[in-house]
Specification:
This protein is an alpha/beta fold. It has eleven helices and 15 strands. Strands 2-1-4-5-6-7 form a six-stranded antiparallel beta sheet. Helix 3 crosses helix 4, helix 5 crosses helix 6 and helix 5 crosses helix 9. Bound molecules: adenosine-5'-triphosphate (ATP). Adenosine-5'-triphosphate binds next to helix 1. The RecF protein is involved in DNA metabolism; it is required for DNA replication and normal SOS inducibility. RecF binds preferentially to single-stranded, linear DNA. It also seems to bind ATP.
Length: about 375
């Protein structure tokens, strides 16, 4: 699959832009603060409904404007499809697929498989568990759109249970209300745990191979799902934690407290890994995602590399570039160094200057 065309209207610093893309490698370069990341953020938005920078929808609208539009045309299995996103300063955004407005966000998930890789992702191993949970959630919702359904229901119930724990201590029906919420939590939470378990089992062997190669066959990487509760004893543990939860005013048991551990030669590198080991493992993880998507959905995802090449040494850059065959890739950078020119066989070049896109592509096609 690949993105053919993108149009922006009042999106971030863009007033108007219309760009045609190449099915291969698209390099978006320019000085700082010109609009490079904004451009690939718009692609990410069309695929996932959200900004990868966790910005609020309103922040995506050009300052002083009331609304913004992003329109994307992509080709999937030889069929041309479109996504429209209409962001509004007041009210909820509207999304349409092939001009038909969608009712639920999960209609969008899985339509366009996208992998974003930015310098922040290199910190995935050393950052807190929240980032690792976000990683699983994003990947799984692309691979299995139903996952998003269970996750959003789980979080809704969790929020309501927490509100009850915090604010309604004197209610006479407290225990019976909590019984109802607990049943719901276990219902959705169990599916989440099972789906996460399967996802990690699928990713594990791919990650092992990628990392072995990247480390020059010196290190073996293992990925372990640290689920807060097992499916079998979830209900019992939730009930046992109730008195404590009432004191703390929050739910202390469940998949919202899950984590993933990464071990190199049996040592937990979240805590004991060197910075190089942590970054190599993060890169291996991103490359494994590409492989897993190819395997499970039968087509290559679209890869967005936001300013990440300059963060890698030549050996890692080389290995990453080896993975770009047959994958539409967007690379943002401030300049194109000789290494990239030598490594890439052909690419389209776009210069971004003050939110204007200058297509220099034909000069660089091989
Ligand atoms: N809602 C908005 N309205 C107008 N301008 C915005 C809005 N949001 C962000 N900007 C501006 O967009 C500009 C470009 O941002 P972007 O993150 O795309 O830069 P970049 O080209 O990727 O730069 P860098 O190389 O520094 O990462 C910034 O100057 C920022 O202030």
């Amino acid at each position: 699959m690949y993105i053919r065309h993108l149009e922006l209207n009042n999106y971030r610093n863009y007033q108007e832009a219309a760009i045609d893309f190449d099915p291969g490698i698209n390099i978006i370069y320019g000085d700082n603060a010109q609009g490079k990341t904004n451009l690939i953020e718009a692609i990410y938005l069309c695929a996932t409904s959200k900004s990868h920078r966790l910005s609020k929808d309103k922040e995506l609208i050009r300052i002083n404007e009331k609304d913004a539009h992003v329109y994307m045309v992509f080709e999937k299995n030889d069929i041309i499809e479109t996504v429209d996103v209409h962001l509004k300063k007041i009210g909820k955004k509207n999304i349409a697929i092939n001009k038909n407005p969608i009712k639920k966000l999960n209609e969008l998930f899985g339509l366009i498989n996208i992998i974003m890789f930015s310098p922040e992702d290199l910190g995935l191993i050393k950052n807190g568990p929240k980032d690792r949970r976000r990683f699983i959630d994003l990947e799984l919702s692309q691979l299995k759109p139903l996952y998003m359904y269970y996750l959003s229901h789980y979080h809704k119930v969790l929020k309501q249970r927490n509100q009850l724990l915090k604010n309604n201590h004197n209610r006479l029906d407290m225990q019976s209300l909590l019984d109802v919420w607990d049943d719901q939590l276990v219902k959705y939470g169990t599916t989440i745990i099972e789906m996460r378990k399967n996802f990690i089992e699928d990713l594990k062997p791919i990650l092992y191979e990628k990392h072995l190669h990247l480390s020059g066959k010196k290190e073996t990487l293992d990925m372990v799902y640290e689920n807060d509760v097992d499916v079998e004893d979830y209900k019992v543990k939730l009930a046992a934690a109730r008195t404590g939860d009432l004191k703390k005013g929050t739910t202390t048991v469940g998949p919202h407290r899950d984590d993933i551990r990464f071990d190199i030669n049996k040592i937990d590198i979240r805590i004991y890994g060197s910075q190089g080991q942590q970054r190599t493992a993060a890169l291996a993880l991103k490359l494994s995602e590409i492989e897993l998507i190819k395997k499970q959905v039968n087509h290559a995802p679209i890869l967005l590399l936001d300013d990440v090449l300059s963060e890698l040494d030549h050996q890692r850059q080389h290995y990453l570039i080896e993975h770009l065959k047959d994958i539409q890739t967007f690379i943002t950078c401030t300049g194109i160094d000789d290494f990239i020119k030598k490594e890439l066989n052909g690419y389209q070049l776009y210069q971004i200057k003050d939110a204007k896109v200058i297509n220099e592509s034909d000069l660089h096609k091989c």
